[in-house]
Amino acid sequence: MSTVATEAGPSPADEPVPEITQRRLTPLVPPHDPWSWVVAAVVTTIAAIVRLVDLSRPGHIVFDETYYAPNAWALVQYGVEWEVAEGGANPVDGAPVLGDGPAFVVHPPLGKWLIGLGEWAFGYTPFGWRIAAALAGIISVLLVARIARRLFGSTMLGAAAGLLVALDGMHVVMSRTALLDIFLLLFVVAGFGALLLDRDQRRSRWLAALAAGRDRPGFGVPWWRLAAGALLGCALAVKWSAVAFIPVFLGLALWWEVSARRTAGVRRPWRDTVAGQWRGFVAATVLIPVVYLATWIGWFTSDHGFYRHAPVDAQGEPWPARVVAALRNLYEYHAQALTFHSGLDATHPYESPAWQWLLLARPIAFHYSDQGGCGAEHCASAVLLLGTPLLWWSFLPALAALVWLGVARRDWRAGAILLGVAAGIGPWFLFDDRVMFYFYALPAQPFLVLAVVYVLGAVMSSARPRSTGDTGTILGVDRRTFGAVLVGGYVILVALTFAYFYPVYSAQLIPYESWQARMWLDTWI
Length: 525
Hints:
By secondary structure, this protein is mainly α. The protein has helices at 19-25, 34-52, 65-78, 110-122, 126-152, 155-166, 169-175, 181-211, 223-236, 245-264, 269-294, 297-300, 319-342, 389-392, 395-409, 412-425, 445-460, 479-505, 512-517; strands spanning 82-89, 96-102, 364-371, 379-385, 473-474, 477-478, 509-511.
């Protein structure tokens, strides 16, 4: 019996689902494999060690911790950021002495709330204000390892991706410093992972429906898509630069939904997607501002927040009027913050435009001190925000190869990775008159690593798998064996490079000559 296509899709048939349809609707991730979790746990443990050991070193505020550590402490105390008074720290607990009124800050509160949780648990100490960032970095390594396994269908490539993130100097330094960007990376990566799970879940439902002789799956709440919306709301509540990922991720989800319908034989997949999925997309999109506003709960419930009762003061009015006034005042707060960001044209010794980031042209010295105690005549202790050079100098050739392979293979994975990189770095090319810093590239780093791993994985497998299982040879060696050696060798070289630079990532006290030997470029000083 032949299958007759209807407006919605193929009608029930006695014939099995075509092999090509099964292959395209089946997730790439291998069957449940406990060993893959063991591998991911080992990778995550390595990440934890290099981030948590001597986390309190250096034992003082570094770089922009001068803003976020006291902001976070004030949030814990008052629910809103507060001015810091002159006169140093409280002699009892070392906490900053807070002033007489709220502070005007230009970043949303979620990242500072997370830093504040660490301070609440461990006190106003270097460990207290850095532990949340360290945990965020560790969790993000685990997420990247699992995402890569799902993308590439390989536990080995998943482990490679996790290790490359774990052993990247930029990621390590940002995980050991109380800044906001590591939290932004965490929520962006988690949102991308949720979308991948949504994609696989939706395609599995389509395949099950076709195999059962139905023309489409039944209704199901798109929980992972909703989770992605909530996570994007969290990312936006850390830094507004997350806004670039919102249309990219929603566009990916839409394209994957249309692609699943096209693969299933739906005659008009775009129209069918809009008709059948608009509620889920609207709900996921609405969750973004809802979650974002929820992170301002301290401001909403306080009478002391900056602009809390200005320009509209509705105190004593009925609650609907107070809600409207609060939203109006929050809008004014955001307008002032946007004015600050758009007019940020001051100069800074460590600023760098976006085109320099992948070249490692201008890293940032978070900390440097010249002191004794290392057994040499002159010693140095430094925290240099610098990506592991071998890894970062691989990104540009990997992106070029990714474009070529993606077009040649018509591979959706290459497109998704490229869009992640573009969302993380691309918008900053539009602000060439604004002061910018290298760490703005951090949210793109996981996608850059995925680009490298994609290219390494392409060496291991041919574009069109042979039915015989033969993957071909390279230089007379089985392709998979050659690729596995290449992946392992590359990761080992990155690990050795990272180990060499680790003293200047973690403020270890080393001879001055050893520090100078690691300054490969004049612009690194």
